[in-house]
Amino acid sequence: MSAPAIDARAAHDAGVERLLESYRAVPAASAIRLAKRTSNLFRTREKADAPGLDTSGLTHVIAVDAEHRTADVAGMCTYDDLVAATLPHGFAPLVVPQLKTITLGGAVTGLGIESTSFRNGLPHESVLELDVLTGAGEVVTASPREHADLFHAFPNSYGTLGYAVRLRIELEPVLPFVALRHVRFHDLDDLVAAMDGIVRTGAHDGEPVDFLDGVVFGADEAYLCLGAKTVEPGPVSDYTGQRVYYRSMQHDEGTTRDRLTAHDYLWRWDADWFWCSEAFGAQHPLVRRLWPRRLRRSSSYARLMRLERRYDIGDRLERLHGRPPRERVIQDVELPIERTAEFLGWFLEHVPIEPIWLCPLRLRGEGAWPLYPLEPHRTYVNVGFWSTVPVGRAEGETNRRIEREVSALDGHKSLYSDSFYPREEFDALYGGDAYRLVKERYDPDSRLLDLYAKAVQRR
Fold first, then answer.
1. Which of 3, 9, 181, 326 can pair with 388 through a Cys bridge, CB separation 3.0 to 4.6 Å?
2. Residue 190 CA: distances (Å) to CA of 150, 290, 411
3. Non-local CB neighbours of 381 within 8 Å, separated by 6+ positions
């Protein structure tokens, strides 16, 4: 083992000890939480009554094993740092979520997705084993063979069964560039049919597809974005400057082509937080020229959004203009592919939000993930929409309508944002019985929050 690897493991061990010391310092009557400066959760929470756990020593890549195509990674390592460590070896994680500040542990316990998910599933499916700090204050190693109940219940538990301290994940080879095709569709049924064909065959119009997602601008304007790994050199685009990635795909008819470095492809959405930077004026040409490039990233917009929520700036402006306050509708949902066009039609008719992101996925294996029970061998499409609408007569009225529609179409909803499910419905959708058994074993004194309390009651 090389000296840098020994140093990284020693640093990791020291970080774990600081984590355990901070756990022991939390009063017995207080809930255990992480001390985090950033978060990719989009729901307000009660203020903590005790210091959070010290994760400052758990932010790095411990080792990359190019021979076995694996990496050992600390739980609070961001994908930005993880990709920076693996790309020089010619590898990347099997699924790299879109935002740089998402952590590996966060993507596994809270789910993640990206344009490789149609062939690589979700991030937790590439985890070989993980060390978890449980609610009982113990660090246990979970895998399909050891503490298998915790291993399979951990995805979608959002820190209520424990926190990932170290994860060993699979990697896959990458090539220097990604060649892109943006295919225009005038009909959503046609787009979904084409997507289904790509998922089944891995190709479109005779060309291979390694990356697949899409954007809906309206019922008669939508695009599939098809990427292929390539070593072929040539000019590459840059969407960290004046140009905006999602606008680059718009055209009247047929297919347009583009090319990015592998690194820039992975982070193509981050510079504008998909398209949400428009809410802060960051897509206006003058503002964009003045906005420092280093701050043109998702984490900057997230900080601005948290400030807006803290001081109620948006609703104050609405009142000044004589308009009602706004309800946040920031959600990702998974629909079976055969129901996706139906959902999109309903959504465009009833919810005034666009663009909409599309990302197909299929589980890699037979599926044993009780807290987010997608069916194996079935294709789903993640539909993402992130904006606000005028408030209704009841709190979360639009979000609740969406929840009902998703359930009616045999879909599932991610829990990173506001949820409004009654307890019984929530338990039926998110593995309530299986969850309680694992919770009792690994958090017997309820030091960690309950999943319903965290996801719906915002504790």
1. 326
2. 41, 41, 21
3. 192, 195, 334, 335, 336, 337, 340, 358, 359, 360, 361
The yes-or-no verdict on residue 249 having pLDDT over 90 is yes
What angle in degrees, to the nearest 10, is found between the helix axes of 397-408 and 337-350?
A: 150
| Amino acid, res. 183 | V
Residue type, 78: T
Give residue 189's Cα distance to chain centre.
26
Q: Which residues contact 373 (CB under 8 A, 6 or more apart)?
A: 367, 412, 431
Per-residue confidence band for 217, with pLDDT thresholds at 50, 70 and 90: very high
DSSP H helices in 154-284 = 188-201, 245-248, 262-266
Whole-Å CA distances, 174 to 49, 86, 182, 287: 45, 10, 21, 35
- Which residues are CB-contacts of 362 (< 8 A; sequence separation ≥ 6)? 117, 118, 119, 121, 199, 377, 378, 379, 380
What phi, psi does 403 have (nearest 5°)?
-55, -45
Question: pTM here?
Answer: 0.94
Residue 149 · residue 438 · CB < 8 Å: yes
Token digits of residue 369 = 């993930």
Residues 6+ apart with CB under 8 A from 252: 184
pLDDT at position 229: 98
Q: Note the Cα 254 to chain centre separation in Å.
A: 30
Residue type for position 81: D
User: Cα–Cα distance between 370 and 436 in angstroms, integer?
Assistant: 11
Looking at the DSSP bridge assignments, the partners of residue 260 are: 178
Tokens of 408: 């009616």
Mean pLDDT value across the chain: 93
3-state SS, residue 228 = strand
Bridge-based pairing of strands 255-261 and 356-361 is: unpaired
CA Rg, the chain, in Å? Answer: 22
Residue 406, judged by CB atoms within 10 A of its CB (0-12, 13-18, 19+), counts as: buried
H or E segment and range at residue 166:
strand 162-173
Which DSSP string corresponds to 194-221? HHHHHHHHSEETTEE-SEEEEEEEETTE
Q: Which of 98, 43, 190 minimizes the C-alpha distance to 384?
A: 98
